[in-house]
Amino acid sequence: MKKHIPAVLLAVVLLLLWQVIAILIGAAYILPSPIQICIRLWQLREPLFLVHLPATMCVTGIGLGISVVLGLLLAISMDCNPKIERALYPVIVASQTIPTTAIAPLFILWFGYGIWSKVLVTILITFFPIAITVFDGLKATKREMEELLYTYGATKKDVFLKLKLPTALPNFFSAIKMAIPMSVIGAAIAEWLGAQEGLGYFSKRMMTQLDGAGVFAPVVLLSVVAMIAVGVITVLERKLIQWRKEI
User: Fold this and answer.
1) Contact criterion met (CB below 8 Å) for 92 and 132
2) φ and ψ at 9, to 5 degrees?
3) pLDDT tens for residues 97-141?
4) What gap in Å lies between CA 150 and CA 164, rounded to an integer?
């Protein structure tokens, strides 16, 4: 627990500073205080927790799941064949140059206000770190170790399962921990630009009512959920990668 004390102290200091600045401004519709946000979060708990949070988590879960499968397939394909790497790598990088706020309205136009337009935005944002990070992990395998296994009669499948996969596993968990916040952001952006439910939609609706605390409440809820998810992945990582002393 001692290693978390600096982070807790910094968070407390930042919250106190935020509280003081909000009091000095004195306009909750511009900058609500943390206390006002917590009160508003409690007041709006039913629509937030029962309607909008499940909608956002559904988009996030589906989008992240597809991104994991797509990212792994791309990473493994590029590692297995240099020609595929030369063909796909520029395309993968180019996909991240597309502004999300520009492509999201097109997805809504093509697929409507249903779940899939928002899922596609989430996939577009999250598959990149998974594909590139896992690919880098697979490439980090020492060539000497591969040659040693081949001299012992190992097949390409054996090298992948017994050497490359364990080597890339830390990179995979790092990619997931990066992708979780990005998937939440992607879902919120898509809901903000066009949706009928979700925390992003709810935050936008509160903005039209000049309810500053109501705007921040779903944002805080999203942040807490993302941090909890990253924490769960970190615990799982420590359980599965016990040969790493530090994660």
Assistant:
1) yes
2) -65, -45
3) 877 777 777 887 788 778 888 898 899 889 888 999 999 988 888
4) 13
Q: How far apart are CA 94 and CA 51, in angstroms?
A: 36
- Tokens read off for 162: 């017994």
Q: Residue 141: left if φ>0, alpha if ψ -120 to 50, beta else—which one?
A: beta
Taken in order 73, 77, 79, 85, is the CA torsion positive or negative?
Answer: negative
Q: What is the amino acid identity at position 19? A: Q
Q: How many other β-carbons are positioned within 10 Å of the β-carbon of residue 67?
A: 27
Cα 138 to Cα 154: distance, rounded to the nearest angstrom: 17
What is the C-alpha to C-alpha distance for residues 136 and 164, in angstroms, rounded to an integer?
11
CA gap 163, 157 in Å, rounded? 10
What phi and psi values does residue 194 have, to the nearest 5 degrees?
180, 105
pLDDT tens, position by position, 83-92 = 988 988 888 8
**Predicted model pTM:** 0.83
* HEC profile of 133-174: HHHHHHHCCCHHHHHHHHHCCCCHHHHHHHHHHHHHHHHHHH
Q: How far does the chain reach from its first CA to its final CA, in angstroms? A: 15
Question: 234: burial class by Cβ within 10 Å (0-12, 13-18, 19+)?
Answer: middle
